Amino acid sequence: YGAAEAGRDYNTTDMSRQRMYNEYLPPYKAAVEAGVGSVMSSFNDINGIPATANKWLMTDLLRKQWNFLGFVATDYTAINELSAHGLGDDKKVSELALNAGIDMDMVGEIFLRNLAQNIKEGTVKQADVDQACRRVLEAKYRLGLFQDPYHGVSEARAKQVLMQPAFVQAARDVARRSLVLLKNDNQTLPLKNTANIAVIGPLADRPLDMLGNWSGAGDAKQAVSILQGIKNVGGATIRVTYAHGANVTEDAQLIARLNEHGGQLDIDPRPADAQIAEAVAAAQKAEVVVAVVGESQGMTGEAASRADIGLPGRQLDLLKALKATGKPLVVVLC
């Protein structure tokens, strides 16, 4: 995935074996040598052959050259997606994947529906299916799942570990250390002796967007928005004024698509200029402005690549208007 052309998810990867061996394969080889138990095949093709049907990659390299003994799982529905690469119908891609060295079909059920027929037609060997099953069962055995199928999973344990203060604080510390301060003109940060802050922007009061893309089981109800975080820190000693300022985007089609996938975007129906004017009025009454702008959590991530990395919608116009007020301006880019 790291070498997909143009940086687009699932796009083709085309490189020489020399570059592959020297630059991309070493960390994977190190993981195998350290005893990793499973490997996942990617969606994209490698030099013209999709990884999930690539016998050189999954068998010749992984098992014969590196002596990998674990099991190979596909990425989510990767066997199904071989058809999109033009490799054939379900029965054909089932054959190609199993013969390439795939042991487990993640979610797609291609193996479940087609391997029996593949064996009958002689395109897949019973021994290879048995080997794939053995590898998966061996992994389950080593994990103790034969004795305890739900090992480590219980409501009691969930209460002991999920959202515990020490773990939340550790996550907060990791997040804090990942932030990048691009510049700090006039030493505006950290904010000092500030009694009146205007917090402005479409992402300022968005706990869901604090989780980011692919947050798994993340609970937005447990997240803290930047607006709320500033209020929590300042307490009764500061006055915080909030203005929406702009919609994340003015693209109605994109908004609908994001909301279909849990975006929960609330769109201000007022004209964009009216929203900006309201934000400017709030900024003019404050000592410092904190503008929170960027992308909603569904705009960029797996299977979501924007063609333009600029701020979407009227957010750049909002920033220009806030800067024109002359007030100290802190921009938080999400």
Please outline what is shown here:
With 334 residues, this protein is of the alpha/beta class.
CATH superfamily of the largest domain: Glycoside hydrolase family 3 C-terminal domain
Question: What's the order of the H and E elements?
Answer: HHEEEHEHHHHHEHHEHHEHE
Number of strands: 8
Dominant shape: elongated
**Number of domain modules:** 2
**Unreliable spans:** none
Looking at the overall shape, the CATH architecture of the largest domain is: 3-Layer(aba) Sandwich
CATH topology annotation of the largest domain = Rossmann fold
Q: What's the overall average pLDDT, rounded?
A: 93
> Number of helical segments?
13
Label the structural class: alpha/beta
Radius of gyration from the alpha-carbon trace, in angstroms: 26 Å
Highest CATH level, the class of the largest domain:
Alpha Beta
Helix content: 25-40%
Question: What is the beta-strand fraction?
Answer: 5-15%
The end-to-end distance, rounded to whole angstroms, is 23 Å
Q: How is the largest sheet built, in terms of strand order?
A: 6-5-7-8
Oligomeric status: single chain
Biggest pleated sheet: 4 strands, parallel
